[in-house]
Amino acid sequence: MTEYDPRLVAPTCLYLASKVEESTVQARLLVFYIKKMCASDEKYRFEIKDILEMEMKLLEALDYYLVVYHPYRPLLQLLQDAGITDLTQFAWGLVNDTYKMDLILIHPPYMIALACIYIASVLKDKDTTLWFEELRVDMNVVKNISMEVLDFYDTYKIDPQRGLPEDKISPVMNKLPAKA
Known about the structure:
With 180 residues, the protein is an all-alpha fold.
């Protein structure tokens, strides 16, 4: 994709993503708002046909594979399996926040779900050690993903529990080993 203008590729990705997620944004509206926001910059003067042509190039680059797996389904299944459905809302919020990072592009959805369950269980003082052992999942990966999530919160000073003092986040960070 380096041979194409990223100022055209980026809005085309948004356009295609909106179609994939069945929340379609019309190409003409996308072009309208780009022109409105970047009126003084000639580099952003794209027409609808430019977006639609780039969409086909993106589809070809993706080999027309548009199936997207999200961590939400495995999250619900794993919480139910662990018998800790009371953590659903909190863990769901953590999963939502992972979309602000590149984790979804790097790790399988079930591993992100497990990391969010791990963080939620530690913050809510639920002992899930035996359950994680029964899963026979690589806890180093789960902990590394957890560290990335917690690093995100720490970097942006975001409180995952809305109102939770920052001194509650530190104990979780201290329980996790450094990234392997």
